[in-house]
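Teaching note: in complex prediction, the entire set of molecules is handled at once rather than each chain in isolation. The prompt given to students was simply: 'Predict the structure of this complex.' The entities are:
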Amino acid sequence: MGISNHAGAATGTRRAGDRKSGIMARIAEETRFQLQRGRMLKAAATCFNEKGYSGTSLKDVADHLGLTDAALYYYVRNKEELVYQCYLRAAELGKQAMDRARTEGRCGFEQAFLYVRYHVEIMVGDRGPVAIMSEIPSLKPTHRNEILNVSRQHSTGFEEILAAGIQDGSIAECDVRMTGNAIMGAINWIPKWFHSDALLAKKVVAEFPKILTSGLRKNES
Amino acid sequence: MGISNHAGAATGTRRAGDRKSGIMARIAEETRFQLQRGRMLKAAATCFNEKGYSGTSLKDVADHLGLTDAALYYYVRNKEELVYQCYLRAAELGKQAMDRARTEGRCGFEQAFLYVRYHVEIMVGDRGPVAIMSEIPSLKPTHRNEILNVSRQHSTGFEEILAAGIQDGSIAECDVRMTGNAIMGAINWIPKWFHSDALLAKKVVAEFPKILTSGLRKNES
DNA sequence: CAATAATTTTAATCTAGATTAAAATAATCC
DNA sequence: GGATTATTTTAATCTAGATTAAAATTATTG
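The expected output is the structure of the full assembly:
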């Protein structure tokens, strides 16, 4: 099994090219492969969000890339894995936003605010779109559990931020679980009504963090 | 085409029973038919929310009712229409909540608060679950447009409430469009994490209205 | 440029699950 | 209780779209 065979590396084993290519070549290929793969995941996210899951065939995704449906199988074992990869990517982007917010925020409130800011920024920006996780239940058990786990961790992470904010006095007493659900829900729903629009994107980034966290502030002070 | 043939009435025409039954009978049938139909829509909503759209077959829905998949076709022309009906029901319930809130609320803020309260109450209560509208794009054009229209009206209605609240001074200046998107998103996302749990339901009803509208209040007073 | 590996396409299958027709059962009416 | 309509089931089809194998094309390397 050749390390240069990306289909194999990415999806298990399909072909079995075996010669090793030079290191420069490998890096180049890796890049090319990963680039296409990334484009594919974006295209898939776009389709899933805009046409619904059942409404998007692999051909739809392929069309976005100027490819044939069959070509997608070079990057992904099957449709289930395509969805899984989209969700994984979505989770990673969310995590990046939260990590950054945690690092930069000086108190709970600020961290919550920044998290919303960064996550929304990613969702409506160039790194988006991010796939709505509508079809977790139809993932195969391994994948489903992995996605559920990272999702849970993400939620927990945000609740921790809220709890910290209550501790440090920057956030008013509240049910962190429910508050987390509310804020994350509003964020997760964005792809439902937002579709690639630079102007609107600016507004979203400007407004959402304010709107979603204005209720967290302590009344007096 | 007999008026007593519900399959015909509901889905177009399949069989063509023609004799007219007595009025009492008709009422009784209507009731029975509608009851089963209602149960079916609930079962479908449950399945779609919990198993995802692609993950739920008509058999899954039928199992919930102790029926055969084929039996569903007595109530609905096809799967597309089942989804459509679910969405229509979801829209109606949302509208009921908003109408009631508008009637009872004495100012914009109160109306917004009550809307959240009533809608959430319905979603997590006995009249739920309400189907997440994930697959609007795969509805056939007529149905899709109808659902999109009522959704738009619903959004607009909420924005009007917010605008009224700003006018009457009960709500602070804000971008009503974004604020509406945020609040409605949080509500629409509920079925993603809430699954029939009386205890949790109480908490949701108690917390969500507060959480989602606390940011609307004017700072000073 | 020849050789090898990477990527994509062409052209079939394959299949779950939707859909349908006809028969069977249950309900209701006179 | 027999007749008529309403509801459900049984047992096949039917089909879009996923999947695959093999061939063709394109890129890369020395």
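Point out the following to students. Residues 2, 4-7, 15, 17-19, 21, 25, 29, 32-33, 36, 67-68, 70-71, 74 of chain B lie near DNA strand D (CB under 10 Å from a C1'). Chain B is about 65% helix and 0% strand.
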